[in-house]
Amino acid sequence: MQSELSYTRVREGLEALRMTSALSVLDNVLETARIDELPPVDVLDRLLEIELHARHDRRVETNLKFAGLPYRKRLDDFDFDAQPSVDPDLIQRLSTLRFLEEGTNLLFLGPPGVGKTALAVGLALKAVEAGHRIFFITCHDLVGRFRRAIRMERQERLLTTLLRPKLLILDEIGYTPLERPEATFLFEVIAKRYDREKAIVVTSNKSWGAWGEILPDQVMTAAILDRLLHRSVTVNIQGESYRLREHRRAGLSPRNLDLGKEVHSQQPTDQPS
User: Fold this and answer.
1) What's the rounded mean pLDDT across residues 162-185?
2) pLDDT digit string (tens) for 216-231?
3) N or C: which end of the chain has fewer CB within 10 A?
4) β-strand pairing of 199-204 with 105-109
5) What are the extents of the domains in the chain?
6) Are 194 and 162 in contact (CB under 8 A)?
7) CATH class of 68-256
8) With helix as H, strand as E and coil as C, how does 116-153 read?
9) What is the DSSP string of 169-205?
10) Element (H, E) at 11
11) Residue 242: pLDDT over 90
12) Neighbour tally for 161: CB within 10 Å
């Protein structure tokens, strides 16, 4: 009778604590413990291990839904042989996520198609799997969301969205010049994350010296770069576009391609820019 009462209390306790995963395996764990004559502390350790793993997996999945990643490709999928300008040892060190704890920015620069976004996504996945919240957004989408936020008077809500994550990825900065309100908002995001020592990953097709072409004036350019570069690692990527290489493998030469139109016969590239 006492054992049945204790068993009922344990089930009720696990349910009250919302330890649903531990509750679902309680009977199996208890039966294994009986057969193997395990001490009570081992039973408790097993139940906690199962619950913690399940909660971690749920947190990872929730964070992935929030992240806005364009795809899920791991660093192991990156073709370092195709981009010899990328140091595998450096990327391996970055994958430890120490830069995240130190609030160090990562800046991937290079022409379109060389793997900048692929590296950013791979590191973002590492961060999510480590339990961190991340947020990915292209510069183009950021401008669109900022303009909508202005119309709806929700700038602060958008700012909070960009400041909350442990890691923010700003992708494809440089393709479109920013007007002053947009550049000012971008500066505010970068400056406040800098003050809070929260890391940003930036990908851009522009060298630092060319950022004046996309920002409204040199003062704004200097202010943004000052905060981005103070604590940062820059990875300059050279080489051929993955997309053009795939076109050539398919028997298409760049001169025969209309780069302003989508080539429907081609599959999506393995390594976006």
Assistant:
1) 95
2) 999 999 999 999 999 9
3) N
4) parallel
5) 2-65, 68-256
6) no
7) alpha beta
8) HHHHHHHHHHHHHHCCCCEEEEEHHHHHHHHHHHHHHC
9) EEEEETSSPPPHHHHHHHHHHHHHHHHTT-EEEEEES
10) helix 2-16
11) no
12) 17
